[in-house]
């Protein structure tokens, strides 16, 4: 191990970047052991050792020789495109700016599997399209990796980037690309938990007041706000951008509640993907399903995924807002919401519809035919997670966007449930809103 190298370029810059991030990470959660897959000479492990974390291991395909910055007995040479089992678990898996050098497909899958196999907490970054760099052959937008790790049971915790975004001691690519991922399987009691240990139970969010969107205050209500997206045109991009600002305002307006925000898109046109990926970073969770074979007007699939996220985040309620429905008065809307959170009701705009088009679905579901049909309109629906799970997840696959709200409500009502109104003076469904109108709404909300 060469201590002298730490003070020389480029090692000094590498270790300095790592040290700033590690100091921030250790404020969030204690780390006693770590493994770095793609460690190079080991600046991140050096930073951990300097902070008192001695139980470290570094893995790379090439042996860095005399430039190794951590004890040689802690280094192992291995092809990261091949399976690896170190026979133990660590508090932290590190995978930084490595995966873009691996071929897409099986090589990448093996690398991500290795990260997940060795820890419930992953520190991860990867080069984005156009970033450029030595041997970069697999640059992807952030949402691609979010989705890949979500499939392995992890959720993104964007709690470090907001702290380091303006710190020029940290290399630009880390300030832009670095995320923390926590395993979300078997969520328990108010935190994101793993099958082995609670990941977030020891996170000290109060020490990171600049962190966006995560609260440490005690609360009886944790709400997941879901925007189901179908991004096909320029005005759809502007809608989502506007929604991101509105939900930030709503978060500030909700007292004694936690609000998690999510953007789950059924499809994004190829030419708009990078823009939506950038906007998606404003949400706590962003995912693209791209399930073209089961399109149901961009609503059913994202809603189902949102209900799953509610379980993973241990949320009590799901607030679904379709992309062209906007909360124009967040403070008043929040007060309206608080009035129904303690009730087992489906809340929104109550409509009556004279129709028989839903009869075939009622017959399939064993529901009584109702005409006129009384229901909560799907533009904006707030309900406890338990009702979404009981009555929405059981809707037949054939039910499309035009009837999911009607039948969700009817299934609840015919089980002796109740519905409640949320005043439409605080929110509006603006079908077909254009870019200019979005800009005007955004100006008004920011003002």
Give the helix/strand layout.
Elements (H helix, E strand, L loop, with lengths): L10 H18 L4 E5 L5 H8 L4 E6 L14 E3 L14 E5 L9 H13 L2 E5 L16 H9 L3 E4 L3 H4 L7 H6 L1 E5 L37 E11 L2 H20 L3 E12 L4 H8 L4 E4 L11 H14 L3 E5 L3 E3 L2 H9 L6 E9 L5 H7 L7 E12 H8 L11 H10 L4 E4 L5 E3 L5 H12 L1
Parallel strand pairs: 1-2, 1-4, 2-3, 4-5, 8-9, 8-11, 9-10, 13-15
Antiparallel strand pairs: 5-7, 6-7, 11-14, 12-16, 13-14
Helix pairs in contact: 1-2, 7-8, 7-10, 7-14, 9-12, 12-13
Short structural description:
The chain has helices at residues 11-28, 43-50, 106-118, 142-150, 161-164, 172-177, 234-253, 273-280, 300-313, 330-338, 359-365, 385-392, 404-413, 435-446, and strands at 33-37, 55-60, 75-77, 92-96, 121-125, 154-157, 179-183, 221-231, 257-268, 285-288, 317-321, 325-327, 345-353, 373-384, 418-421, 427-429. With 447 residues, the chain is of the alpha/beta class.
Notable features of this structure?
447 residues, single chain, 7-stranded mixed sheet, elongated, 14 helices, Rossmann fold, 2 domains, Spore Coat Polysaccharide Biosynthesis Protein SpsA, Chain A, alpha/beta
């Amino acid at each position: 191990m060469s201590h002298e190298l730490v003070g020389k370029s480029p090692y000094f810059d590498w270790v300095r970047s790592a040290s700033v991030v590690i100091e921030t990470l250790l404020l969030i959660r204690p780390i006693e052991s770590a493994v770095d897959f793609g460690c190079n000479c080991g600046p991140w492990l050096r930073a951990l050792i300097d902070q008192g974390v001695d139980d470290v291991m570094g893995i790379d395909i090439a042996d860095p020789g005399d430039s190794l910055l951590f004890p040689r007995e802690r280094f192992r040479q291995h092809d990261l495109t091949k399976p690896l089992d170190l026979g133990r678990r660590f508090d932290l898996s590190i995978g930084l700016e490595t995966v873009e050098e691996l071929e897409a497909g099986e090589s990448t899958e093996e690398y991500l599997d290795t990260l997940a196999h060795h820890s419930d907490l992953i520190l991860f970054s990867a080069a984005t399209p156009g970033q450029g760099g030595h041997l970069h052959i697999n640059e992807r937008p952030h949402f691609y990796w979010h989705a890949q790790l979500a499939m392995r049971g992890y959720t993104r915790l964007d709690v470090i980037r907001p702290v380091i975004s303006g710190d020029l001691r940290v290399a630009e690519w880390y300030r832009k690309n670095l995320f923390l991922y926590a395993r979300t399987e078997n969520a328990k009691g108010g935190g994101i938990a793993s099958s082995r240990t609670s990941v977030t139970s020891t996170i000290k969010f109060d020490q990171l007041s600049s962190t966006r969107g995560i609260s440490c205050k005690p609360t009886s209500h944790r709400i997941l706000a879901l925007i189901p997206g179908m991004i096909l045109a320029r005005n759809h991009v502007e809608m989502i951008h506007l929604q991101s600002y509105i939900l930030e305002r709503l978060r500030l307006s909700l007292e004694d509640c936690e609000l998690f925000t999510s953007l789950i898109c059924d499809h994004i046109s190829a030419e708009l993907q990078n823009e939506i990926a950038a906007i998606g970073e404003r949400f706590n969770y962003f995912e693209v399903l791209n399930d073209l074979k089961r399109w149901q007007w961009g609503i059913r699939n994202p809603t189902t995924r949102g209900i799953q996220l509610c379980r993973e985040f241990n949320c009590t309620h799901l607030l679904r807002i379709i992309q062209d429905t906007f909360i124009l008065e967040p403070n008043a809307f929040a007060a309206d919401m608080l009035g129904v959170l303690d009730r087992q009701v489906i809340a929104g705009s109550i409509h009556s519809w004279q129709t028989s088009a839903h009869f075939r679905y009622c017959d399939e579901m064993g529901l009584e035919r109702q005409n006129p049909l009384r229901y909560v309109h799907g533009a904006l629906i707030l309900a406890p997670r338990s009702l979404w799970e009981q009555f929405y997840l059981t809707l037949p696959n054939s039910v499309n966007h035009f009837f999911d709200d009607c039948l969700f409500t009817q299934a609840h009502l015919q089980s002796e449930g109740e519905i409640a109104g949320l005043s439409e003076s605080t929110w509006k469904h603006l079908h077909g809103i254009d870019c200019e109108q979005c800009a005007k709404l955004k100006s008004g909300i920011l003002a």
